[in-house]
Design goal:
four-stranded parallel β-sheet; Rossmann fold; alpha/beta; about 35% helix; six-stranded mixed β-sheet; single chain
Length: about 375
């Protein structure tokens, strides 16, 4: 039991805390990574820690269905669908977002695991109003069918969900102590604030020597500032926290959002390549890739000192690499490393030898294809008229 709450345990904990020699040498810091991307349901991610506590609360209330909110490609929605599937519950995910043009990434996985996804077109009203209105209608529809619905806020960021990362703070403190990292700084992406708040409260309340820095991944305006302090007040009211905090106690870097939420950014893609090619660890373009790009800037700017010990929280989000608007940008940058081996049969047009690009159907000059060597595509494409 943690702070008066039990959980339904389904995770294989603790998750690993690993030293990354390639990134460390590259940046001149001692770089460690906390692998919460390796949690074991629905391809993993940080929201599962929250969902252990949220699921228990739902079960204690006799609920038969989980209902949550987010964007069309919500990681939290995917993991809520995973938990619902694992424990024999129904699931619905309400999104204020248009259909992204294809069933891919998290949206595909939601449906594979049996969740209903409701995509509501933004009508210009405050997003909170649209979420509340749509969720109420979905809840009423399922309750009319006999379901008892448990509502989970965006990101699982409630006083109950926060406990997952309070517990993680305790786990991480023990791991850091065993590895001699008591003076390290933990760096985490900040989105819906729940993960950061859980870490903040856990580290402070348990007198951990670890420091915490959040990296905002979307504009951190007045609404987020208000939510941050309201959230802490909620934690203080509901749990026996032995400390108080003012805004200055929350170290959140807000200057690395790249202007929007989940937007394609060249700097973020470069950060993703850097991690993948140094350590074979995949970051996502919405959360961990953007937070790592911010961390790289902080090193370059001297906010993180050379030789400093850093623990980067990998919160998962791998399916985000496959979202259409990100995937198209990756393809533009990476396709030149894919070589196409063509059969000899070609279509002659005048004095130019052309082939058909099997991927797009466009006619291309054969000379535009590089000679094949190393790792190659083994597809043999027969040109036709």
């Amino acid at each position: 039991m943690l702070l008066g709450h039990e959980k339904t345990s389904f995770l294989h904990l603790p998750t690993p805390l690993e030293y990354l020699p390639g990134v460390s040498a590259d940046l001149g810091v001692e770089f460690y990574i906390k692998r919460d991307d390796l949690t074991n349901l629905g391809v993993g991610g940080n929201k599962l820690r929250k969902l252990e506590y949220l699921l228990k609360d739902a079960q204690d209330q006799g609920c038969t269905m989980l209902l949550t909110l987010g964007g069309a490609q919500t990681n939290h929605g995917r993991l809520t669908a995973a938990v619902a599937a694992k424990f024999g519950m129904k699931c619905a995910i309400v999104c204020v977002d248009p259909y992204p043009g294809e069933l891919s990434a998290n949206l595909l996985l939601d449906r594979l695991m049996g969740a209903e996804v409701i995509l509501k077109k933004d009508d210009g009203r405050p997003e909170s109003e649209q979420f509340a209105e749509t969720a109420a209608a979905v809840k009423a529809r399922y309750e009319a069918q006999g379901e008892k619905v448990y509502e989970i806020p965006i990101g699982g960021s409630s006083d109950v969900g926060m406990l997952g990362y309070y517990e993680c703070a305790m786990e991480l403190t023990e791991q850091a102590k065993a590895m001699g990292l008591e003076d390290a700084t933990v760096i985490s992406a900040v989105g819906s604030i729940g993960t950061y708040m859980g870490l903040f409260c856990g580290l402070k309340n348990e007198s951990s020597p670890l420091r915490l820095t959040g990296v905002a991944i979307s504009p951190f305006g007045e609404g987020k500032e208000k939510r941050l302090m309201e959230y802490f007040a909620q934690m203080k009211a509901n749990y026996p926290l032995v400390f108080d905090a003012v805004r200055e106690d929350f170290h959140i870097e807000t200057g690395y959002t790249r202007g929007a939420y989940n937007n394609p950014c060249a700097e973020v893609r470069q950060a993703i390549y850097r991690m993948a090619r140094a350590e074979a660890i995949l970051l996502d373009p919405c959360y961990t890739g953007k937070a790592f790009a911010g961390l790289l800037d902080m090193v370059a700017e001297g906010k993180i000192a050379k030789g400093e010990k850093v623990i980067f929280l990998h919160t998962g989000g791998f399916p985000g690499l496959y979202t259409k608007h990100h995937r198209e940008e990756f393809e533009k940058e990476l396709l030149d490393g894919v070589r196409f081996q063509l059969c000899k049969e070609t279509l002659r047009s005048g004095d130019k030898e052309t082939v058909r690009n099997y991927r797009t159907g466009q006619a291309l000059q054969q000379s535009s294809f590089k000679p094949t060597d190393g790792i190659q595509s083994l597809l043999s494409v027969k040109a036709d008229a």
